[in-house]
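Collaborator request log, item 7. Partner lab (contact: R.S.) asked for a structural prediction of ATP-binding protein to inform their binding assays.
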Amino acid sequence: MKIEEISARLAGLAVFRGLLEDPVLAAYSALIRALAEGAGRLAVCEAAGTFEAVLFAADTDDLSDYIASAVLECENICARRAARGALSPALEKALHSELQFLEELSALGLDELLAAAGRDGGKLAFLPRWTAHPTGLAAAYEARLSEMGQLGYGMFARHHVFMLSDEGRLTPVRHPDGQRLADLPGYEREREKIIANTKALLAGLPTNNVLLYGDAGTGKSSAVKAIVNEYAPEGLRLVEVKKNQLYLLPDLMDKLAANPLKFILFIDDLSFAANDDNFAALKAILEGSAGGRADNIAVYATSNRRHLVKETLSDRAGDDLHEADTRQELMSLSARFGLIVTFQRPDKALYSQILLELAKQYQLPIPSDQLITRGEAFAIRAGGRSPRAARQFIEQCRAGVL
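Returned to partner:
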């Protein structure tokens, strides 16, 4: 292809137009445009240097792999339609054409670009050369289309844990907690209920919203994060939502409903004051709203309170004429979670088991009897037995603090 053709086809991208917003590919496009417009030697050198600096800043010199990765993870209409099995012939034709072009483009090095522009590469020998090679991009993307429901597209293909901003935008967590189920000794029976519910969500079966209730430090949040890490390769994603963001959930759920992946909306350490406006918002989300809940979404929440609403003796001694109705209203929120899993503070036997399992994971060469005695003493100082206290004790032993 001549450089004018390359520039025109790059400018005319429709399905993959989002690629032009990528800093590396935007700089690459500027270099191609400079060559196509017959820019002078200095302008071409500036465009080439700018592009290569941005490429190197992305921690790579391999443009072929960079383009292939960007294309495979690009969110576009064809990816969304293919995930729903609704790719039209017109879109399929446009997709195939652009994929073939991008595959050819990704294999071009600087010398090939200069040759396509009719320029002597020898006069620009001082410019760095990036790595370029055939990628099989078109075939790889066609294969990816058939797996969109499991691998996702866009940022959902690159990340599996997200935060919700106060403006309602999803932001990927680039370094999520790497907790795994194998790292969590004890509470296997409790976690098995949550795992079964999560598997039902992944299989498209009826799924319950889940409330993990119990004492502090018993591993409620860790259980949710570990389950998401375990099943992320099967299409599971987690969105962490703060209590003061609950009013944003209806819009978020509408957006996620069309996504082929499965989502857990995770609310950590949930509790309400009796006059909290978020109380009614969550009730409507869990059950009772006109829109209902999409089949690919479930709400998982953790709390130290069984009934979620803080209630004092003075509340019960107030002047409410319909006290029983009010109390039922306050207790109704937790009843809207179809699955409630209780994490109780461990007894001595379970705490000892957790200590021994963690010591094995950390390869601590401490005799079992000494480990348990010292761990019990640590738990007393820490305010009571819990998996959190056990892990803190083992980590401090591993670091040589204790």
